Amino acid sequence: MPPSVTSDENPLRRKVLDAALELFEERTWDGTNVPEIAARAGVAVGTIYRYFPNKQALGEAVFTEAKTAFANAVITDEVRKADPVTAIKMIWQHQIAFATAYPQAFSFLEHQVHGSYLRPQALEVVHRLNTELVEILQAAQAIGAVRPGDPQLLLSMVFGAFVGVTKYSRASGIPLSAYDWGSIGQAVMSLLGLKDHEPGEFTDP
After folding, report:
1. What angle do CA 56, 109, 197 make, to 5 degrees?
2. Residue 179 forms part of a structural domain
3. How many domains does the chain have?
4. pLDDT band at residue 196, thresholds of 50, 70 and 90?
5. Are 39 and 7 in contact (CB under 8 A)?
6. Is 14 domain-assigned?
7. Residue 141: inside a domain
8. Of 43, 72, 101, 133, which residue is most buried, by most CB within 10 angstroms?
9. Is residue 176 classed as helix, strand or coil in its secondary structure?
10. Which own/partner pairs from 22-29 qualify as long-range (CB within 8 Å, at least 24 positions apart)?
11. What's the whole-model pTM score?
12. With 60 as the cut, is the pLDDT of residue 105 above it?
């Protein structure tokens, strides 16, 4: 079982969350039922309902935990204190590190559609992360380091390219650690208009 994205003081609840993540990533939320999660976790079905009233609540918990872990890994205090260009480079490195360390969580988050079971409060973490990323891009635009344009669109282009690489990695069986992230980073950052890259500055940490 891949490492959990967070720790949990309750070992049974942790087993349920980890098993749910595995199955949601393998079969999607829609394609998974609660008895299957219980079997994978090695617990009774009633144990799941002790912590989560229904499958929707469990799906929201898995999504929120994974997305919060991703947000915290990508936007650190160091990123917030850095100049916008440095922050962008750090964010690129951080997302590579997260996707490499937690491929199952990243795949679940970014390779599937979650709208059918997430309520607005579960999407708040998505909004917070997106807001911080857009603010960093706007700051980089203000100093002329990033091309003009809708920062949300630029963000979608860059992150979409990264997600595309992770999808190809899973489809091909080539681990993310085997890729030339320096070259990929330079190609992707050119979408933002960032130039004059130093060798190795877009590689993983």
Report:
1. 160
2. yes
3. 1
4. low
5. no
6. no
7. yes
8. 133
9. helix
10. 22/104, 24/59, 24/62, 24/108, 24/112, 25/104, 25/105, 25/107, 25/108, 25/112, 28/112, 29/55, 29/59, 29/112, 29/114, 29/116, 29/117
11. 0.91
12. yes
